[in-house]
Amino acid sequence: xxxxxxxxxxxxxxxxxxxxxxxxxxxxxxxxxxxxxxxxxxxxxxxxxxxxxxxxxxxxxxxxxxxxxxxxxxxxxxxxxxxxxxxxxxxxxxxxxxxxxxxxxxxxxxxxxxxxxxxxxxxxxxxxxxxxxxxxxxxxxxxxxxxxxxxxxxxxxxxxxxxxxxxxxxxxxxxxxxxxxxxxxxxxxxxxxxxxxxxxxxxxxxxxxxxxxxxxxxxxxxxxxxxxxxxxxxxxxxxxxxxxxxxxxxxxxxxxxxxxxxxxxxxxxxxxxxxxxxxxxxxxxxxxxxxxxxxxxxxxxxxxxxxxxxxxxxxxxxxxxxxxxxxxxxxxxxxxxxxxxxxxxxxxxxxxxxxxxxxxxxxxxxxxxxxxxxxxxxxxxxxxxxxxxxxxxxxxxxxxxxxxxxxxxxxxxxxxxxxxxxxxxxxxxxxxxxxxxxxxxxxxxxxxxxxxxxxxxxxxxxxxxxxxxxxxxxxxxxxxxxxxxxxxxxxxxxxxxxxxxxxxxxxxxxxxxxxxxxxxxxxxxxxxxxxxxxxxxxxxxxxxxxxxxxxxxxxxxxxxxxxxxxxxxxxxxxxxxxxxxxxxxxxxxxxxxxxxxxxxxxxxxxxxxxxxx
Length: 613
Description:
The protein is α/β, with parallel strands linked by helices. Helix content is 41%, strand content 23%.
């Protein structure tokens, strides 16, 4: 397929972005494989992992075999663990290696019940069922970055692997090291090998495990690498990577009688891997190409449309009107016309009628609601007048700021101490007057940091781009990017996302966002705050009215939750009709300020007449 010149740069940058992401991820997270169903409770699994982190690294590092099993039950949810460190590893490195694997569990595999993690110095298997030896166990591998194209070299590495795995299987410690000196095609190499099985395997079981592993994971042809399952591991490099002297020197050119069969299997597997990889790359590039072409076609169509001076199509008030008049569009199922979600200022008396004898809880979005959308996201401060109005509202009503920004940034923007803050679209909640934050998915923070670093590197060549780490989500602002590069931003962002399977892509106003696949929306955050504030107010739901004001798609989850549960209603900030779950509308932050002023005035007058019990 020949690509048009305009598409070559986006696809090249997208490919480079994938390489950058892979480099970033590989330096922080162990090689891993995840499978099986999910645990039901994140909280229980997190507690189980915390328990294992507190006990297993210390326990395994103090036994001579550097091997241990463990299990923990939290709220009826069982987690089994099996771990081993490499035989030449000291206790401090062993503890650190196992702890790193456990800390990476939720980041890499989420709630999956089967997880295998491996570094060069340790391996750990986590499972929802008892861990037993099986021929279908998962395996992982990692290779050095340099290939060696030499049949003689491959033959020598085959001999090294065959020799060291045989030595390990027949060792009482199930651990062995070896060295081999080779002269291939006029180049001299010294290769070092290591093999190990867990201590509880028999000699025959160890030999079978290493035999299967060396057949499945092909690392010959590279300058080094390692391959692991739960039960055994082997590795080689062209440098001495273990502490002691090699236990055996492998004669050049020797191998066992099954080497040829293994070599043939390796080549078959390698061919399949290369074929599948190429197919995946073609599919990815084709998908990016389709996205870019569609966006360009859509942009072209919009340009043509805007050049023709046609009257705007209005929304019909009903399906009957749509049938009679061809010049208007039928309404959507959700509210889609000004008549259906009228001005909250014009209908203020109707709103306060619902609030009679009730306590009002205010939930306010930030960008586009309290502050205007600005070109530089870090300069989106509210006006002093708006700050004063929000302060006055918070003195009369329990008030919460619910935003996609992280909590420290929101506090810096708002500069008020008498409000609650829910940052990162609700994934970080700070209650006024309390030190501890509520964070439903704390393990996301390091993952978001990695994604931020990856996006910054992948997008650094695009003028006007701004990548913002919001602690539990990351935002890519392209408001200041030249329109001709928007397709490039989209293609690059979507390519980077492929290295972060625990995250999903969302959109906002001139922004792409990586957010958790774990479902916790602004609606969930508002519900959490609602229930928490009910306890503080010592009242029941019938005596409370919640109002959420916001301008973005993410606010729709809060509008929906309030309406469906009968807690209150939403007010959409917008200058034009659009589908929404809100009941009322305000045009911009100036109207939001006017509405809040009216609400405060009403409450002050109300308090002058009667006091709420």
